[in-house]
Amino acid sequence: MGVATPVLEIKNASITFGNFRAVKNVSTTVYENEVRFLIGPNGAGKTTLLDAICGKNKLSDGNIIYHNEGEEYDLQKIKENKIVNIGVGRKFQAPSVFTGLTIFENMELAVVRERDVFSSLRSRLKKREIEDIKHQLQFVGLYEMKDEYPTVLSHGQKQWLEIAMLCVSKPKLMLLDEPVAGMGRRETQRTAELLRIIQNNCTIIVVEHDMQFVKEVATLVTVLHDGELLCEGTMDEVSSNQQVIDVYLGRGGE
Amino acid sequence: MQIKDIQKEKRLSGKMKLALLIFIFLATAPLYMSSFRVTMLGKYMCFALIALGIDMIWGYTGILSLGHGVYFGLGAYCMAMHLKLEASDGALPDFMAWSAVEKLPAFWAPFQSSAFTLFSIVLIPVIFAAVIGSLTFLNRIKGVFFCILSQALAFALATFMIGRQEYFGGSNGLTNFTTLFGHAVNDPVTKTVLFYLTLISLIAAFALCMKIVNSRAGRVLVATRDAENRLRFTGYSPAVYKVFVYCLSAALAGIAGALYVPQVGIISPTDINIAPSTEMVIWVAVGGKSTLVGAILGALVVNFAKSLVSEQFPAVWQFFIGALFIAVILFFPAGLISIKDLPAKIRSFIKKRADTGEAEDKKQAGTNAKAKSDNGLFSNKKPVTVTSVKVSKGDGQ
Predict the structure, then answer these.
(1) Do A80 and B233 touch (CB under 8 A)?
(2) Is residue A25 situated within a structural domain?
């Protein structure tokens, strides 16, 4: 990994909905090529934190700094679609793909760089972009089905397609919300393999409840509880922490 | 894969064939139809032009606008104001004199120029749509809220036009035109020229929409309809695309309005209110949305049926039209354009009937198929190696 460069710095982040404080004063730094897991019981504020990173909701206090190629960005001040364009990709919990477009066309929208109306009206795919799509679809095993509509895909395949769409847009930071929820063991293992490969070129933050999966892929784990940061460390460190066992792991990773 | 490609190709060319057929029918209509019918057809082509725009915004982008009468009206009134000034020949338009207006209002003056009028029939609807669209879509007003808002808009404009008797002729609208750019509107040659001008506009609009739909922008529109949030987090701004398609449909409606006025000879607030605005959506639904050619077909068929039935049964014709809508929705939810699938549907229905006896066999087949697809899922047995992967940040590094 060499000298660790930070990709994302969350500083004293708090998020409030009315009187409810969903995230309280959380600080952490995610480094390049890390696979960081956010775990914790339901309502701990994991997804809310992801939403704040990608601009879906706003911090009430603190800030989130994102580094890319020597530039620093205050993500609070940037619109959602602009955040994507500076290299932060987000996948939501429920698989969400464009069902009216073929799998290839889904990928096409993700691969292009110019995303304004006039470029979309004019430009055609470059050869390199078509190659990228091909590689990426082969990577998740969907190339053979590229001209089908995503309605024929299983739940797991839809998740993979969405991950492939993220990958092909070459983000620097990828935010995944429960990517293996609803997947069988074999699909989960396959997804773990995918993440390990994606990790080589990208930093990943994952919210997940599947502890087996966390063990397989995690570099570091951040445990949230009631909106607060409970502890942070490797999976071994975290799983031997008595507090974590009390509030979360001891209850079977609900 | 190959088969799928061919099917898709076939389906597309099927639509193109239908479009070609419709255009040939329209182009040759003056040869064998009475001039009364041809004038009607000219009016329907204007409606088809609106329907194309509605298909773009509703069929492809999933935004239901029940207020496109506004844009039709803006285009129509711009043209009507010019025609009115031509007809009054320097004097004050007749209805203004009746309302005791003494001087031509300032905003009427530019419409004396034909060039200004031609620009305004596109620009005024587009500017209006851009303002309304930006206010709504950028603030993420959508679905049923936009739907209600668009209706209110149509109602507001119609009410405004009715209330401003002295400027827009009130509920009578604008009528009694004599010439269009110096040519008598009742002259058969003018009428024929107008008819073909409308047809050319329709074909050009169809080609333009086809081009947009087949471009990546068209796919972004469909993506807006299917999963707007996903699109936003793929780096697109759905609101900007929505404003774009809203303006496009407004422009088409405006042009349609401008072509409508000299052919029909009148525009009044009744033509732009909620009822006609809603009807525009019905044409698209009946013809088949997200197909473009379906929108044209729907506008022509519904309006033709309306005229024919109302001539035959002046008292009860609306029931027939109602029945037509219900029948289409019940039997062809994808619109008239899906009628060609009817034989296949009937065949599969008969087959299903015949197959119920062999339910057991089918169940067996089902399990086999499932086992097969499971294999397919994990068919990529070879381990994925780092070298075979291109997730790289690539040139970004």
Answers:
(1) yes
(2) yes
* Structure token pair of residue A144: 């053979």
Searching chain B, which residue's CA lies closest to the CA of residue A84? B235
Residues in chain B: 397
The pLDDT tens digits for A124-175 are: 899 999 999 999 999 889 999 999 999 999 998 999 999 999 999 999 999 9
Number of domains in chain A: 1
| Residue B135 located in a structural domain | yes
Q: How many residues does chain A have?
A: 254
**How many domains are there within chain B?**
1
Q: What letter represents residue A112's amino acid? A: V
Instruction: Give long-range contacts, CB 8 A cutoff, 24+ apart: B91-99.
Output: B94/B176, B95/B165, B95/B166, B95/B169, B95/B170, B95/B172, B95/B174, B96/B166, B96/B167, B99/B165, B99/B166
Residue B307 has pLDDT above 70, yes or no: yes
For residue A17, the distance in angstroms to the closest alpha carbon of chain B comes to 20
In the sheet that holds A88-91, the strands lie side by side as A88-91, A173-177, A203-207, A35-39, A220-225, A228-233
C-alpha to C-alpha distance for A63 and A74, rounded to whole angstroms: 7
Q: Is residue A151 part of a domain?
A: no
- DSSP label at residue B314: T
Tens digit of pLDDT for each residue in A89-131? Answer: 999 888 899 999 999 999 999 999 889 999 899 878 999 999 9
Q: Pick the residue from chain B with its C-alpha nearest to A93.
A: B230
**Enclosing domain of residue B187:** 36-274
In a domain, B19, yes or no: no
Which chain A residue has its CA at the smallest distance from B61's CA?
Answer: A100
Select the more confidently predicted residue: A248 or A173. Answer: A173
Q: Is residue B74 domain-resident?
A: yes
Task: Answer whether residue B327 is part of any domain.
Answer: no
CATH label of the domain that carries residue A235: 3.40.50.300
Q: Check residue B343 and give its pLDDT.
A: 79
Two tokens at A33?
Answer: 């090529």
**A212 part of a folded domain:** yes
Contact B300, B22 (CB under 8 A): yes
Interface pTM, i.e. ipTM = 0.90
Confirm or reject contact between A94 and chain B (CB < 8 A). Answer: no
In this complex, the residue of A79, A90, A100 whose CB is nearest that of residue B225 is A100
A108: in domain: no
Task: Sort out which chain B residues have CB atoms less than 8 A from A134's CB and list them.
Answer: none
Domain membership of residue A240 as a residue range: 1-87+172-184+205-254
What's the pTM value of the predicted model, to 2 decimals? 0.86
Mean pLDDT computed over B2-15 = 54
Beta strand segments in A47-169, E: 61-68, 71-74, 88-91
Which residues in chain A touch residue B4, judged by CB atoms under 8 angstroms apart?
147-148
